[in-house]
Amino acid sequence: PTRFADIGYEKCNWVARITLNRPEAYNAYTTHTLQELATAFRQAAFDDEVAVIVFTGAGVYAESGLATFRGVGGLWADFDPATLATAEAFARDPRRVWDWYVSRYVGVRDSEPNAAHRAIARLETTFPSLLVVTQNIDRMHQRAGSRKVLELHGNIWNARCNACGREADMATLIDIADSGAPGDHPPRCGCGGRMR
Known about the structure:
This protein is an alpha/beta fold. It is built from 8 helices and 8 strands; from the N terminus they run βββαβαααααβαβββα. The protein has helices spanning 31-43, 58-62, 75-78, 87-92, 94-109, 115-126, 140-144, 170-179; strands at 2-4, 7-12, 15-20, 53-56, 131-134, 149-151, 158-160, 167-169. The protein has a 3-stranded antiparallel beta sheet, with helices on one face. The chain has a 3-stranded parallel beta sheet with strand order 4-5-6. Strands 7-8 form a two-stranded antiparallel ribbon. A hairpin with a 2-residue loop joins strand 1 and strand 2 (7-12). The termini are far apart. Residues 1-16 and 20-30 have low confidence and may be disordered.
């Protein structure tokens, strides 16, 4: 593989792979790194028929000031996932799980896309086939301008009924819950199920 500082690139027949190789202590996307990434893409000699996939996760998420789940200062350092992020936890204590998701939603809503999100969105002008595959639930890629995004874990902008599966806008549900009786947390779907 040819190395571009902390960016690796290799091409074998019909596959070109470009990876960011960073030490754990350094996880920032600098302008210099993004320029190197763009150079690596150009040198991969993609044509219009080749699909370009960018896979993102916690590193891009954290650069917008959002707490990740694992690692130093991660959410799971303070919370047990089994008590917040499972259907069983929701059945045991729906209010606690709802409040936790609301607090995370507010954090995401009040954050902005960072340089990495914007750079990935700009890559679509060079590579129209670009698909962003993300583990993140924040919709920052879409907010930065990416048009084709696959959200592996869904997103925090919508809640789903635990009974019928109907989705609803989280902001609307928060307004409903805030204006209702204390027992309306989390709000209920028309079918009687609770929104999560």
